[in-house]
Specification:
The chain has 367 residues and is of the alpha+beta class. It has eight helices and 15 strands. Helix content is 15%, strand content 26%. It has a seven-stranded mixed beta sheet, sandwiched between helices. It has a five-stranded mixed beta sheet with strand order 7-15-14-13-8. A hairpin with a 4-residue loop joins β9 and β10.
């Protein structure tokens, strides 16, 4: 008779070890971290889904006492060395992802300028004094109509399709001869992860040693370190990332964001550590969103109800996917058991572009 192996965790009540510290206010989140002389950042964001930027006048903000700097695309964007994510690699198709919008904004909430001040209150006041001359332009808002639309999101993709993935052609002969054929279009709405702790980052640049220390609310401290090293052109050992407690992520903090890029770049231009804490409004309009997919499914069955073939076609969505259009195709086709002949029947038109913020899928989806 085989011996029964006792398990340590399965089926047992596991005492939580962190509750006492967190519930008594002894947690340490990004906004709890302070550094000597620390400065605070706030973003000027686009109110339009698409508009041409004719000019930016930061004079009013710079005249406000306590404001240290206002950075625009011309100050930060040219200093990017590399800006790709390990989750997809540097050779995958990608959409432009400048730290700050350059020439044209692509979605409501697109970051246009970065204000640095002695307090968050001053920074918030100062962004209202940055005068951006916008020229509104037609936008494409429906990803199901975006492919080959008259309005182009990114010039690099004139048909608004940044990525495609397809298997073998569907076995139409078997499908058409099947006793039963089920076809369905399944739509899943967009949602926002909404972690209790919004995104946040502190970057401290040490001029003498050319080293960076980062405190962040992130799900990927190791990739954040590697990304910062690539972005700034530094050896990885010159970047230190500290993650204390994180108040939720739900996939929204799995890749470094454009805002993270801005703070990393701007921190080298100011005399002290630079902190950015996202407010809830920013989180809802500018942080990575999820789902928002439409899939066209077909399943062929024989007379006894056995599945013979299945096909799935799904476009992705968004204008600046979190990591790459390949990552944000959005549709994962999952079946409870292998289906004969269904291998490679997934037709994924990922990265169909529109003037709307997007992100990754956050969690795998089954259809």
């Amino acid at each position: 008779m085989a011996e029964t192996v006792a398990t340590r965790y399965a089926g047992t009540r596991v005492p939580r070890v962190e509750d006492n510290r967190l519930l008594t206010g002894h947690g340490t989140f990004v906004d709890d971290v302070t550094r000597p002389g620390m400065l605070h950042a706030c973003f000027v964001r686009s109110p339009f889904a698409r508009a041409k930027i004719n000019g930016i006048d930061a004079g009013g903000a710079l005249a406000l006492p306590g404001v240290r700097a206002v950075f625009t695309a011309e100050h930060l964007n040219p200093e990017v060395k590399e800006a790709w994510h390990a989750v997809v690699g540097k050779d995958m198709p990608d959409t432009p992802r400048p730290p700050l919008a350059e020439g044209e904004v692509k979605f409501v909430g697109d970051p246009v300028a970065l204000v640095v001040a002695e307090s968050r209150y001053l920074a918030e006041d100062a962004i209202e004094l940055v005068d951006v001359d916008y020229e509104p332009l037609p936008a494409v808002a429906d990803f199901t109509k975006a492919a080959n639309a008259d309005v182009v999101v990114h010039e690099q993709y004139p048909d608004n399709v940044a990525f495609g993935l397809a298997g073998a052609p569907p076995d139409e002969e078997t499908i058409s001869a099947a006793a039963h054929l089920v076809s369905e279009t399944i739509y899943q709405h967009m949602y926002v992860p909404v972690p209790m702790e919004t995104r946040g980052i502190i970057v401290e640049w040490l001029v003498a040693s050319r080293e960076v220390t980062i405190w962040a609310s992130t799900q990927i401290p190791h990739e954040l370190r590697a990304f910062c090293a690539r972005l700034l052109g530094l050896p990885a050992q010159h970047v230190r990332v500290i993650v204390r407690d994180t108040g939720g992520g739900f996939g929204q903090k799995v890749v470094p964001s454009r805002e993270d890029m801005c703070i990393m770049l701007a921190a080298r231009k100011v005399p002290a550590a630079l902190k950015w804490i996202e407010d809830r409004r920013e989180n809802l309009i500018s942080a990575g969103q999820a789902r928002h997919v439409e899939a066209k499914e077909r399943m062929a069955f024989d007379e006894d109800g056995n599945m013979l073939r299945s096909t799935s076609t799904s476009p992705g969505r968004g204008c600046v996917p979190d990591a790459s259009p390949a990552e944000s195709g959005g549709h994962r086709f999952v079946l409870p058991r292998p289906v004969p002949g269904s291998e490679g029947q997934l037709q994924l038109q990922g990265g169909v572009l529109q003037h709307q913020r997007s992100g990754g899928v956050s969690r795998a989806m089954a259809v």
